[in-house]
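User: For my dataset I need records formatted as: sequence, then structure tokens, nothing else. Please produce one.
Assistant:
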Amino acid sequence: MSNESLHASTDALAASTTTAVVPTDDGDLVAPGSVSATSTAPHVTAPAADVGPVHLLVISHGLYGKPDHTGYLAKRFAEAYPDIAVLNCSSYSTELTLDGVDACGERMLTEIEEFEATRPVKQISFLGYSLGGLIIRYTIGRLHQRGYFDRVEPMNAITMATPHLGVSGRPAYIANLILYRSGSHCTLTDTDYGAPLLWVLSDPTLPFIQGLKRFKHVLFVANAVGDRTVPFLSASARTADPYHGTVHEPVDPLVPEIVRPAAEAPPRTFLGTAGETVGAAARTGAFVVLLLPVFTLVWIFLAPYGYYQSRRAHDRFTRGAGGGGVGGGIASKVQPVVDSVRRSSVSPTPTTKLGLVGQDSLSELGHGMPEAEAVEAVVRAETAETAATGVTPDEYRARIVDALDAELPGLRRIDAHLGEWRHTHAFIVVRNPAVHMAGAPVVEYVVREFVR
């Protein structure tokens, strides 16, 4: 798609966003452009069976999300590239996302396996929105551990408004109380792995970052302003805001929503806010003051429900550890990964490079133990030493940024400017086409940047 057509196509798309590509109740794939009579949630689209092995794009929604939230993304990729297959994950919607990044990643793996049972895959790409970006990073590591990328070519790994550095501006105890394991993952207060999972995903010698390194195109898309769910620095994995104290300019005059700093600004290292600038904090404060009565009422009525959902997630996850219950054995799949991480070697001191897992440990993967158990066999024992040193969440965040920059020299960052006062977290993926079409140029830009 040319630059000139980005905005023109957006207007035309607004009238066609009710058309979706979905599976029928019996699991058959529906051809692109058709609509299931029984579902409105986009799930899978694929070219004709006689095409042969396909390029599979796996898309993940975020926390408390569902496939509808990434339905516009799935639809646009299917329309722009009719020769690729699009899997818009649906096995961990709404409250199941509370189970944790790793639990959702295990469910994503199952969906990929189920797709491959029907169609051979020659190339694979991932796109994760919000928490979904962390889920795809976990899944990529699991696939790398299996040797999957030795037979399937890894192409694109794209995250949009993903909390790579967490969301520390929010009280951790509240997030953990109502969002269960996903809350603790995003506040870097989880202890299962002996170090925060967000660091585990970035440890240079673990399969997660090693798998990500194999992708031809790694892209982080962030809202430069207006995202009160995932601040700019967390979504772009930076420790300094280049927009602080300066103005922005469009990267391409024809796509003014994609921006860069107009001048070099003094670096501003964030501490304790996961990347909220002074201006962003002021806007958030204004919203809180103006809407405090509404927030209070919402909290009174919804906090008990959130706590109830969190307890359900806890029961579901722990029952799964025994192989039964509605958890479907998810905990039993995650626990071996946890055990392997805790058995890995992690530097115990804050002043040295964190997370150096010995190659001897990595060489054990797949040898002498079940595959899932082998994944976790690489990470557990010595990461507990790091936890004992009292490394702070902000120290982990700085190291995550350093690791991503060092291990992913080809990492691209795209900054979107969709307005300072609208809640851009939903706009960036056009989560609801009836409301969020102002974000369509960003989606079109990402679709155009897709590597095939």
